[in-house]
Amino acid sequence: MLNKVGGNLGEAGSVAWQFERRAYLAFNPGGRAEEALFEMLVDAGADDVQYSPELVEVYGAVDRFRALTEALAAAGIAPDEAQVRMEPSNPLSLTPSETAQVMRTVEHLEELDDVQEVYTNLNITDEAMAALEAA
Questions:
Q1: pLDDT > 70: what percent of the chain?
Q2: How far is CA 132 from the centre of its chain?
Q3: Domains, in order of start, for the chain
């Protein structure tokens, strides 16, 4: 499959050093105050909290995943997403056309029955996203 899209398969673990396992949680703040949420999440072990009125994204060390989910549960918050995932250490920005090619490859990989997860270090810019949506 990779040969068809101009790619190749590296050795097992050949790019693992470019990613870090991290706890990730996302939820709608439901009108809760940013400062109160931030304090609660940092106390539970969050390394980074990104707040907007529609979405709160929480990042932390893998060993803090349980504490973070329990803190949310204690506050009556059910996360829309809660997982341990691989986060890129150095995100890569490409041109919109290159981004489209990579995204097509990712989509093909995700459709394979034997593939469980696909991670990328691609930083999808607003310009690239607009080009993808227009295509």
A1: 92
A2: 19
A3: 18-88 (3.30.70.980), 91-134 (no CATH)
